[in-house]
Amino acid sequence: MGHSGIASHRRYSTITGYFLQDDPETVASNFSYAATNFGLKERRYDSDEGFVGPDTTQWQRFEREVAHLNAESARNEQYRVVFLGRHGQGVHNAAEEYYGTPAWDCKWSKLDGNETMNWADAHLTDVGIEQARTANRFWAEKIKHEKIPTPQSYYASPLDRCLATARTTFTGLDLPEDRPFRPSVKEFLREVNGVHTCDRRSSKSYLQSTYPEFAFEVGFTENDELWNPDVRESDSAIDARLKQLINDVFEHDDSTFISFTCHSGVITAILRVVGHRDFHLATGSVIPVLIKEEIVYREEPRTESESWKSLPVCPIEAA
Question: Which has fewest Cβ within 10 Å: 65, 105, 106, 128?
Fold first, then answer.
């Protein structure tokens, strides 16, 4: 899709009308991906003609529709479907719920844990493990009965809770031979960075020994060189990071159907970057997004990222 030597940049937009989550009337707080077929709308497509039979599922029709969009697109355009999965409940999520967000932000998030649990690079709780198992069963049902197009590529945050969620969600599924679960770890898929110890990742040696089936991108350092104990990433800074991540993936991966297993803050930023409306996901939930990628042949407009910020000091001792 490129013109060698000509300045260009990638521009992204969300193609609406296919999923309930991009409909302004859909309420995120009580939405269930498992009760709504991932939110895929029951509707007709322009590409249905000559294809739809009595046993053709909505997902088979959608896969053909995306192929049709790509076949009809300009040379500098491509359509992708990205399944954005939030990790299952982590120890840090349970701790924040217990202490309350104000006390969590100003005191407990800065510690490695308390007398009963550790949340540095937080692991999944039993609830989080079961949420990932629920996702696995849901994918299995959709593969068997709905012929859902499975991801061609899998990417995950380097934080333990995401690697565990991805492994549990996608291991053991009846995947096509040409679409195996071979996940890649991307440093820039990590959660909003800084201050919170739950977002400080473990060493590469630990992660590789614990998750040997995951491939780590070139340049992935042994120790976490990005986490800062004093300041936390701003919204504009994480948006810039996620734009860079999407650029990297889309430049080097021609897959149409892609899975990201990541975090609430990351998903929120990705939705901003691709022009999707805000849609908060509960732990263990998934949102698919149909993204239009365009190569624009001119310099990308410059944007300034806000500096990382200190979190507020507790006005009183947080219990």
Answer: 106
